[in-house]
């Protein structure tokens, strides 16, 4: 079992560094214990990568140490190579952000499977399109969030988590607790909440039998 991300750098002796004069560094990632890195490693080696940084960690995880090491090792004129786009970015905006930062540093990017190279005119055009799609996605999320909040305000609700008990349930609980034979714990179980929630929403109620009075 993998208890933490595996961070490995594999040095591969090559007679040439491939395209361009800079280094070609590979990054490979798998997200589950039953996946193997062999396929990505072989593809990146064939693509001329001098070094390959590998790790086993979920793509949703923000903590990817091997990727951090790889990005720090890149200099202007170098190229970052991945087997497939989804090995690098956690989402489309994340992918665009990383590649954009590489471009600002003068570092190229290449995806073997999609045959994308930001060093070419076609590759740059592709990533301009990705950037536009990422911005479109952000705008959609923003609009949906704002529309949802506006609809909630129109129904008399503010944004935030839905209360554990609504007004009707609070009235029912108050009525139940007027009966001295009904225990707070039983009421809490019936409504699927804790005793603390009952006290929070109902206010000061009588103590259960045998308990110290509430102050």
Automatic annotation (TrEMBL):
Pfam families: HTH_7, Resolvase. Keywords: DNA integration, DNA invertase, DNA recombination, DNA-binding, Plasmid. The active site is at 31 (o-(5'-phospho-dna)-serine intermediate). Residues 23-156 form the Resolvase/invertase-type recombinase catalytic domain. It comes from the Bacteria. One of its GO terms (biological process) is DNA integration. One of its GO terms (molecular function) is DNA strand exchange activity. Belongs to the site-specific recombinase resolvase family. This is Site-specific DNA recombinase e14 prophage. It comes from Sterolibacterium denitrificans.
């Amino acid at each position: 079992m993998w208890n933490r991300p595996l961070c490995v750098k594999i040095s591969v002796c090559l007679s040439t560094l491939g395209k361009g004069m800079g280094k070609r560094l590979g990054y490979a990632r798998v997200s589950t214990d039953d996946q193997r890195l062999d396929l990505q490693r072989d593809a990146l080696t064939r693509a001329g990568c001098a070094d390959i940084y590998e790790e086993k960690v979920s793509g949703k995880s923000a903590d990817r140490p091997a990727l951090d090491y790889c990005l720090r090792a890149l200099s202007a004129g170098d190229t970052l190579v991945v087997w497939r786009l989804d090995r690098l970015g956690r989402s489309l905006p994340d992918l665009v952000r990383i590649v954009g930062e590489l471009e600002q540093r003068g570092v190229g990017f290449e995806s073997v499977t999609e045959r994308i190279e930001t060093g070419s005119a076609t590759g740059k055009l592709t990533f301009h399109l990705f950037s536009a799609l990422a911005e479109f996605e952000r705008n959609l999320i923003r609009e949906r969030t704002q529309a949802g909040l506006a609809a909630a305000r129109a129904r008399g609700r503010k944004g935030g988590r839905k209360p554990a008990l609504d007004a009707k349930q609070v009235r029912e609980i108050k009525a139940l607790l007027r009966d001295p034979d009904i225990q707070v714990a039983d009421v809490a179980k019936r409504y699927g909440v804790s005793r603390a929630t009952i006290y929070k929403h109902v206010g000061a109620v009588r103590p259960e039998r045998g308990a110290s009075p509430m102050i």
